[in-house]
Amino acid sequence: MKWKLLLLIFICLKSFSQEKDLNYFITKAQNNSPLLKDYSNQIKSATLDSLLNRAVYKPQVTGNLNANYAPIINGFGYDLALSNGQSVAGLIGVNQKIIGKNRINSQSASFQLIKEALVLNQKITLKDLNKTIVAQYISASASSEQISFNQKIATLLKQEISILKKLTQNAIYKQTDYLIFIATVKQQDLVLLQLKQQYQNDLALLNYLSGETDTTFVYLKKPEIILKSIQPSDKIVFLKQFEVDSLKLQNQNKFIDYNYKPSLSLLGDAGYNSSFAYQAYKNFGFNLGLGLSIPIYDGNQRVLLHQKNDAALATNLAYKNNFNKQYKQQLLMLNLKLKQSAAVENQLQLQLLIADALIEANKKLLLTGDAQITEYSIAVGNLIAIKNAISQNNSNKLQIINEINYWSFND
Question: Domain 22-62+101-408 is of which CATH architecture?
Fold first, then answer.
């Protein structure tokens, strides 16, 4: 049978195939993530923008060369008083903005806040990616664990077939009892096949999320996921976003005020500028000047801009307070679920002791011909259900821990 061959291949592969742990997939996912690379490049770009901004306030030096000729033909042409007939200018110009240190510092702070916002977004993206990989690894590992247990049950049942067959031939058990037992074994084989297929799908999805193109059948090591210590809420990356947004708006208020202060520029040029009208060889020189701009009235825009910014600050504060409440409630719910999971685990372990004892008792009765096959099949079914429930509960517990670590710890 093909399914028997598949199961045999799976057992052999599990024994000899390469083992991979959680860190392997997390590292692959981080290295393959285009979004993380995008944020890294944006952070570099923000640093360069800050340097470019500082360069703007350094002296701006330009070289200009202009030559003009306006001929007068038969009395027709430009007025010589306006055109000078011809002119040549070769000048080096300098423009230096005179800006207060506070304005420069505020602009530097603005670029630093942009960089901090990008770093926070990168951290959140990294947390999201790690959480997704851990969650899928837990699911795949749970499938692998269920295969291991159900394989042991299948082996146990097949060992009993030969015993039951002899007892049936000796008329100790009915033929119908033997067929009921065979049906139980076949059902277990089907469960194994389905679990293997589920594991293959879970493993394929894990590779997909890690950005890998890999169909190799590998064995996953048991996930070691521990509950990390909860950090103070003011250090959590999600809340720091609101702080950065608030600082941006406060810094924007400073810029509004700076834009309504007088601005001064120092202008100058030096070189050659001549119309060749008189002693052209002496027309080397320089020119100095000041440019002053004073805002007078713009329709009260300054007050309106401050009011708009204050509204944005109030909105940001409202979102922060709401998120803080939801954040605390989220942790309370997750910790409650973790306690519930522990309580369920205790109950399942007690049921497992009874189920194991019942199986052992039925195995002994089976040898003497005193066991009820239907009862034995039911006992095996109960044992499988309990073990699968334990595996599922353990998987749920690890998923809860993964969720708590996501919200309460900065990776």
Answer: Up-down Bundle (1.20)
Please answer whether residues 221 and 19 qualify as being in contact, where contact means their C-beta atoms are separated by less than 8 angstroms: yes
- C-alpha closest to that of 222 among 151, 138, 165, 287: 138
Question: How far apart, in whole angstroms, are the C-alpha atoms of residue 285 and residue 280?
Answer: 12
CA angle 58, 64, 66 (to 5 degrees): 165
Sign of CA dihedral 6, 9, 13, 15: positive
- Separation between Cα atoms, residue 231 and residue 229, nearest integer Å: 6
Residue-range domain boundaries for the chain: 22-62+101-408
On whether the CB atoms of residues 113 and 247 are closer than 8 A, the answer is: yes
Phi-psi region of 372 (alpha: psi -120 to 50; beta: other; left: phi over 0): beta
Q: Is 78 helix (H, G, I), strand (E, B) or coil?
A: coil
Structure token digits, residue 333: 């719910």
Q: What are phi and psi of 327, to 5 degrees?
A: -60, -45
User: Which helix (H) or strand (E) is 31 found in, with range?
Assistant: helix 22-32
Look at residue 114 and tell me whether its pLDDT is greater than 60. Answer: yes
Q: Which residue has the higher pLDDT, 273 or 203?
A: 203
User: pTM (2 decimals)?
Assistant: 0.81
Q: Tokens 């803080």: give the residue.
A: 324
Q: CA dihedral defined by 148, 153, 154, 157, rounded to 10 degrees?
A: 160
